[in-house]
UniProtKB/TrEMBL annotation:
It catalyses: L-serine = pyruvate + NH4(+). The keyword Transcription does not apply. It holds the Pfam family SDH_alpha. It comes from Taurinivorans muris. It comes from the Bacteria. This is L-serine dehydratase. InterPro entries: ASB_dom_sf, Fe-S_L-Ser, Fe-S_L-Ser_mono, Ser_deHydtase-like_asu, Ser_deHydtase_bsu. Its EC number is 4.3.1.17. It is an enzyme of class 4 (lyase). Keywords: 4Fe-4S, Gluconeogenesis, Iron, Iron-sulfur, Lyase, Metal-binding. Residues 24-176 form the Serine dehydratase beta chain domain.
Length: 472
């Protein structure tokens, strides 16, 4: 027992020796094409980064470059076809960044697998094709599950230059030898929710004001620039819900999944009981964005593409069903960002790292926090609402059927949105001092569960519903 106690205390000591949150809002929340931040946005960013590097290094090459070669590993290999990973990498190598990717580009690239494209390095034409992207081993020794190696080859098939990239979730990428970029330091440093609450007490600031202070210090951007970016993200989410509600038909892929958001939205209009109408609308809003994501539409990573329907659903309901003002919505959005920061900093938000608890679970926690803060409740209530939402997603696996972000992903967004609303109700109905489970504990539990979770339940489509549905 003494040994176990010693190990426990050593674990707790190690968990406290971490740096403060230094992530920017501009990094966590990004616009880009679906269906997956780790499988689509991340690989596209890697392709674009590699193209820019090759152009810089062109004078160093002793042989004439001829073509690009890409190898996908881990869950990028296992479920990349259903996620459009090949098209995403190709789009990046063609010079497209996620935030400026034309609508429908990935779908068009995927529909023409034999097409050859040309990209210029200086005045040298480089050949690109989906046939030069290889699905390699699922089990590997790279430090991150979602790994891709991009090479610039000469005519003899020899590599002139290559880089090992890691898509670490939420559209973030790293590479072999990567070092965190130098930014400013937060003026109110925190590494946990407990830390954050202490900073709030010390400064007397509200949660959204503290986030704005830190964002200005980290990025050097003015408040006007930061708020303008937040407003743009909010409008992108609102428009995503509206587009999804207006569309019908079958989503791409082999699963024959029909869009349901519009049907639910029309159904809600016929319901006379208020709470049934509200919850049906909430489901429709979440599925609208999730269906747009599955169709490769432009969404916001909140915190990932696969979970991008949860927060917009609450946000849309806050504006149009609860009639909460734009300023309060924006302030609530900043509270959601704080929860996303903490989850990413102290655990993970990628399905390939911790399962769907890190995607839908974190999205639900962010949404619960957003609504609670926007409704004027204190940081204690906000943290408790986020905790309740996350706690009841713990252990959730990532098991996309056929590798598509459709089953069970779309309905999970709807359920995550409803759980967020219920977490808000539970949190505000009790004395916050009597709440027994802290948000920090829930995030730690998520990280531990993710580390112990078998790889077949982490976005590889090798277990769970992805297998049982096919077998039946």
């Amino acid at each position: 027992m003494a040994t176990l106690n010693t190990l426990f205390h050593e674990h707790k000591k190690r968990s406290l020796i971490v740096s403060p949150v230094e992530t920017s809002i501009f990094d966590l929340l990004k616009c880009g094409p679906g269906p997956s931040s780790s499988h689509t946005i991340g690989p596209m960013k890697a392709g674009y980064d590699f193209l820019c590097l090759c152009r810089e290094k062109l004078p160093e090459f002793t042989q004439k470059p001829d073509h690009f070669l890409v190898r996908l590993y881990g869950s990028l290999s296992a479920t990349g076809k259903g996620h459009g990973t090949c098209s995403a990498v190709l789009a990046g190598l063609l010079g497209h960044s996620p935030e400026k990717c034309p609508a429908g580009l990935l779908k068009n690239l995927g529909n023409n697998p034999d097409e050859h494209y040309t990209q210029l390095l200086g005045d040298i034409p480089i050949t690109l094709s989906l046939r030069n992207i290889i699905y390699d081993t699922v089990v590997h020794d790279f430090p991150y599950n979602n790994t891709l190696v991009i090479s610039l080859m000469d005519m003899k098939g020899e590599a002139l230059f290559e880089r090992e990239y890691y898509s670490v979730g939420g559209g973030f990428i790293q590479w072999k030898g990567w070092k965190a970029p130098e930014f400013g330091k937060p003026v109110h440093p925190y590494q946990s929710m407990k830390d954050l609450q202490n900073r709030l007490e010390e400064t007397g600031l509200t949660l959204h004001e503290l986030l704005l202070d830190n964002e200005t210090a980290i990025t050097g951007k003015s408040r006007v620039e930061i708020l303008q970016y937040l407003d743009e993200l909010i409008e992108t989410m609102i428009m995503g819900v509206k587009r999804g509600l207006s569309k019908e038909g079958v989503l791409p892929g082999t699963l024959n999944v029909h869009r349901k958001a519009g049907v639910l939205y029309e159904r809600a209009k016929t319901l006379n009981i208020f709470h049934e109408r509200f919850l049906t609308n909430l489901n429709a809003y979440a599925m609208a964005t999730a269906e747009e994501n599955a169709d490769g539409g432009v969404i916001v990573t909140t915190p990932t593409c696969g979970a991008s329907g949860v927060l917009p659903a609450l946000l849309y309901a806050m504006r149009y069903d609860m009639h909460i003002g734009d300023r309060a919505v924006r302030e609530g959005f900043l509270a959601a960002v704080a929860i996303g920061f903490l989850a990413k900093h102290n655990a993970a938000i990628a399905g390939a790292e911790v399962g769907c608890q890190g995607e839908i679970g974190v999205a639900s926690a962010m949404s619960a926090a957003m609504l609670t803060h926007a409704r004027g409740f204190s940081a204690e209530y906000t943290a408790n609402a986020a905790e309740v939402a996350l706690e009841h997603h713990l252990g959730l696996t990532c098991d996309p059927v056929g590798g598509y972000v459709q089953i069970p992903c779309i309905e999970r967004n709807a359920v995550g949105a409803v759980k967020a609303y219920n977490a808000f109700l539970l949190a505000i109905s009790e004395d916050p001092k009597s709440h027994r489970v802290s948000l920090d504990s829930a995030i730690e539990a998520m990280g531990e569960t993710g580390r112990e979770m078998n790889a077949k339940f982490k976005e590889t489509s090798l277990g769970g519903l992805a297998v049982s549905m096919v077998n039946c």
